[in-house]
């Protein structure tokens, strides 16, 4: 393993970011956006074909990216990801914990308790593993930004999505708690809380609910879905020096849903 780059050299080395769940949707858009902003991006996912496609798209647009297979439910894999980034670049600047699953769409009383465990394993423990892997090196460097992808369902109840909504409330709680723990070190921890965003997850959700897109958008004050690029722009802001005084925040990007 290379010695970590420090001092003057650190400031000249390329800034690095990893994004979990970068094979699709919001994660892919975020990987693109961070590459455009000049980061060497590590796009990670369990979907190898999708992740490799994300990297190919970034490289075709002139950015720097690599794919690393990482199942966020595996703490060792998350630690190995961070070690690989430090080995290659000597620094980790931004960690985006985006990988997530929707889980079953059922009334609470009808849910198998295992459904909670499965959703929590990815949506909660995946974020815990990422934060535990990233925080040490960031605190040591005295800088770094973590952005966790929660949901507007982390701020409000979401009928028939109890495991999902509960897991996303946990992500907001983890974000606020970690932010307070490291606030004085220069490391920031924030969350984004997207509303309904145009990705495969919403297509699946509509199918499970037996709803049309029109029925869904009627519930959204802005009367449209969000675009993954709009979430990526908020993540890029929270990751940037422009947000230097923003920590412990859960930012809703939801076309007005949370205001209702
Ligand atoms: P998506 O389904 O398009 O992408 C999710 C990605 O996570 C996939 O590439 C999948 O392979 C990956 N993934 C799943 N389990 C994984 C694991 N164990 N390890 C590593 N990667 C794994 O979904 P979308 O919509 O882009 O969602 C991204 C995040 O945004 C999720 O956390 C989701 O809960 C959240 N979100 C999405 C909203 C939406 O309306 N699309 C609304 C609010 C939050």
Task: Tell me what you see in this structure.
The structure is a single chain. This protein has 260 residues and is α/β, with parallel strands linked by helices. Helix content is 47%, strand content 15%. The chain has a seven-stranded parallel sheet with strand order 3-2-1-4-5-6-7, sandwiched between helices. Strand 2, helix 3 and strand 3 (64-69) form a beta-alpha-beta unit. Helix 2 (25-36) packs parallel to helix 3 (48-60), helix 4 packs parallel to helix 6 and helix 6 runs parallel beside helix 7. It is globular, with a radius of gyration of 18 Å. The N and C termini lie far apart (52 Å). The relative contact order is 0.14. Mean pLDDT is 95; it is low at 1-9. Bound molecules: 1,4-dihydronicotinamide adenine dinucleotide. 1,4-dihydronicotinamide adenine dinucleotide binds at residues 20-21, 23-27, 45-47, 50, 71-73, 98-101, 122, 126, 149, 151, 194, 196-197, 199-202. 1,4-dihydronicotinamide adenine dinucleotide (NAI) binds next to helix 2 and helix 8.
